[in-house]
Amino acid sequence: EFELLTAIAFWYFRENKADYAVMEVGMGGRFDATNVVMPVVSVITNVAMDHMQYLGNTLQEIAREKAGIIKKGIPVVTAAQHVALKELKKDAHNKKARIYFYGRDFEIDTRNKWEQGQVVVVKRKGMPKELEKSMLFVPFIGAHQAVNAAVAAMALTILMKEDGRINENDLREGLARARWQGRFEIHHAGGKTVVLDGAHNEAGAEALQEALQEQYPDKRRIFVFSSLQDKTTETIIQMLVRKGDKVYACAAPTPRTRTPEEICEMIDRQKIRAEHKIAGSVADALEKAVKEADENDIVLVCGSLYILGDAIRWLRKQELAE
């Protein structure tokens, strides 16, 4: 399926004469269907433990797979750190590809959060004076999204040096208009705050936890939660669910889902002392969670990207009814 969709995407971009296309790999990089392209710049945002049965059991092994998108003589931008960065630098050196990495070539100078995003000043070193600093509105929440924006800004800056059609205004406007469903996406239903986040692995859970602490530090969390069998579900629960929170466990619409019963057993094993209940569907879980929530709570839909479609459909119905 992924290979077919990738081929359709290539055809679509050609038919529409796209100047540039951002091709995101499906998994890893080295053997990914998207890796037939010769990029103008390669981007590796970070390296985390995910898809271990395919990519390897250490960050070094996963980094080597991700480094497969680095091409000879083509610049690469990354925010990877520590052992993963070491692997990427080694690969870039072997391929004579200039590597721009976070903390040396570019960084966040200041960051100020807003309810629906943040204002970030990105600093880039070794650039013409007009490109040294950019003040950007990033319509996403969390420190990790500020870093992602800095990576995007650095990649676009490399293109600006080569293509006079791209300028600083494109960078500012493009980021300000960006929309990313399922990444700390805030909705309201029945006057209650509902947050959708696709956190489905440990790195995603860590980023979500940091964003929640920043945005809603004192709110009780009522979860609509699902997870797949190949995910480290118990660790994700441990990272996100606290004493006094409540979890409505539901199945994701895929044969790979964990059962709600499994999820509840994991919560019990963690001894978190969070109430949990089995829901018949995502819509059922959301209905119960929103009805129960008060002004001191947030409803949080997370654990699997697979449940976000059902959640968005339910929320749209509520918004239309209101």
Folded structure, characterized:
This protein is α/β, with parallel strands linked by helices and 322 residues long. The protein is 39% helix and 19% strand. The chain has helices at 2-15, 52-55, 59-66, 82-94, 143-162, 168-177, 202-215, 233-240, 260-270, 282-292, 308-321, and strands spanning 42-44, 76-78, 99-101, 106-114, 117-124, 133-138, 185-189, 192-196, 220-225, 246-249, 275-278, 297-302. The strands form three sheets. Strands 7-8-12-9-10-11 form a six-stranded mixed sheet, sandwiched between helices. Strands 1-2-3 form a three-stranded parallel sheet, with helices on both faces. A three-stranded antiparallel sheet has the order 4-5-6. Strand 4 (106-114) and strand 5 form a beta hairpin. The longest helix is centred in the middle third of the chain and has 20 residues, at 143-162. The two termini are 38 Å apart.
> What do the pLDDT scores average to?
92
The portion of residues forming beta strands comes to: 15-25%
* Basic shape: globular
Distance between the termini: 38 Å
Structural class: alpha/beta
Helix content: 25-40%
Number of helices: 11
Task: Sketch the topology as an H/E string, one letter per element.
Answer: HEHHEHEEEEHHEEHEHEHEHEH
Radius of gyration: 21 Å
Give the spatial strand order of the biggest sheet: 7-8-12-9-10-11
Largest sheet: 6 strands, mixed
- Count of β-strands: 12
Low-confidence region ranges: none
